[in-house]
Amino acid sequence: MQKFGKLVLGIAICFWILPVMAKPYPKEDVLPDQLVMATLWHQTAAEYRAIAYQTFNLARVMLDMELQKQTAKQKAIVLDLDETLLDNSPYQAMVVIKQTGYPHGWFEWIDAAQAGAIPGAVEFLKYADAKGVAIIYLSNRKITKDRKIPGMQNTLKNMRALGFPQADESHMYLRNASSSKQSRRDEIATKFDIIMLFGDNLNDHDVIFEHKGVAERLAAVDANQKEFGHRYFVLPNAMYGEWEGAVYDYQWRKSTAEKSQMRKAALNAWEPKQ
Length: 274
Ligand SMILES: [Mg+2]
Description:
The chain has 274 residues and is α/β, with parallel strands linked by helices. The protein contains twelve helices and seven strands.
C-alpha cells in the first residue's frame, strides 16, 4: 500500500506538479492575463480619471461656443455608452479573474445594471440638459429578440440611477441590423443638428474610421486632426476596441496563440546594438 502511495505521488510529480511549475501561464490564459494592466489602469490610475475630467471640461467650453451659433434644428450631442459614459471595467476585471472573455457574462452584466459613470460625464450632461440640448445615446449594446426589454430597460435603469439626464427610450439608439452607427447617425441628423460626438472608439464619430488597418486609422486621425476637441471627443479605452481588431486585420476568430503572436508582431520595438 505504501509502495502504491509512492507510485501515485511519483506520477503526480511527473505529470502534473512539474509541468505546472515549469509552465505557470497555460496557453489558454494568455489573453485574459494580458488584460490585467489595461484594466488596472482604468481602475486605479488617477491619470485616467484626470483625462476623463479633461475631456468633459473641454467639451463644456466647446458646448458654450456652439450654443452661440444659430442652427435650423434643435442642437444635439451624440454619445456612445460603454467606456464613454458607462464604466464596465468591473466586467473586464471579471474576465481576468475568471480567465474568460467577451461575451461570456456580458448580458448578465448589462442586466445587473451596476456599471459606474465615467468621471465628469454626468455633470457635463446635466449642464447640456439645462441648456436645452438634446442628448442622444448611441450604443451598440444589442437588442436581440429575446433580450430587447431587459437589455434596454436595465441599461436605462443603470443610467437613471447614476443621474444621466434624458435617459429614456426616445433618446436611446441601440444596435440595429448593422454594427455601423452611420445609419443611426443619419437618422438622428434628420431630427437634430449634431454639434458634438463622444466615444471611446473612432467608429462612434464617423464612418470614415471604420474597418481600417492600423496605419489607415492613424492616417484618418491625422487627416481629421482639427475635429478632435472641437466636434469629436474621445475617451481612452485601453481594454478593448476597434484598435484591437485592426491589430488582427479584423480576424477575430484567430486562436488565442495567433492573437498573442499578432499583438507582439504589431509592436514597434527598438533593437539595441549588441
Ligand atoms: Mg464604447
